[in-house]
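Running this now, will post back.
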Amino acid sequence: MNEVYHIPAMLQETIEGLNIKPEGVYVDVTFGGGGHSRAILSALDNSQFTMNNEQRACKSSVQKGHLYSFDQDQDALANAIDDPKWTFVLSNFRYLRNWMDYYGVEHIDGLLADLGVSFHHFDCPERGFSFRFSAPLDMRMNQTAKRTAADIVNTYSEEELANIFRLYGELKNGRAVAQAICRARAQKPIERTEDLVAASRIPEAMSKELARLFQALRIEVNDELGALREMLVAARDLLKPGGRIAILTYHSLEDRLVKNFLRSGNLEGTIEKDFYGNNLSPFVLIEKGREASAEEVARNPRSRSAKLRIAEKKP
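Update: finished.
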């Protein structure tokens, strides 16, 4: 299932960029199919003792050469790894700080985030992430969450929808799409993916525009940017000096946020300088937006939009 669930972009470049220490503590906040996690585990120390579940949860346990992998989707459990160095956390990565406190981890040596939506989500019709399939309009990463995409398109005001489409989908005609949806839902609820396509009045031939529409709703349903902001702050504070953070982004909104945060060390993207004009950011940039090679894109077309950014915490 792992190969079908997701194919990691720039796997070798990302793992090399993390500069993994065999006895370090690492976090993969986007487990998915487990590709990145397996690569990290293969670089960790194999000599540690085997911990049982009680020891893993004990705050006093010494955990060197260990990886914590986060995923909020129950489906990812099918890709679980049988390794004493590995702990799975079924949770949104916005709660990174809470879970590290729970496990007694004060600092980490590195963190990886692959922000791309897993192939599993796009290719699993019943999840409602893609306009390619007829399915309930869902889009929840966490299937226990209450709010679906159908809830949003049927209850948000025209103004709220227009803002979402403009900000999260970067749709130039976001206002017109919002108006069309509001007119359609007045006749009957929009409950399925094909209902949304028809209501939006975006021709099916304009697949990029439809993709932007679905992206906007997915980001809103899962509060993706809000979760990313919280995770970035927690990662900054948890990283040891010399520790590294590696993030793969796939669209301009998240990439802009990550780029500015790694440059400045804050969510506002404000670069503070000392009296001598030196950048006071806590990070040193290692990778500034590396893209997949032509060979990789040929093998994995979905890696085309990936950008890899890596930064190291200053001493």
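The chain has 14 helices and seven strands. More later if anyone needs it.
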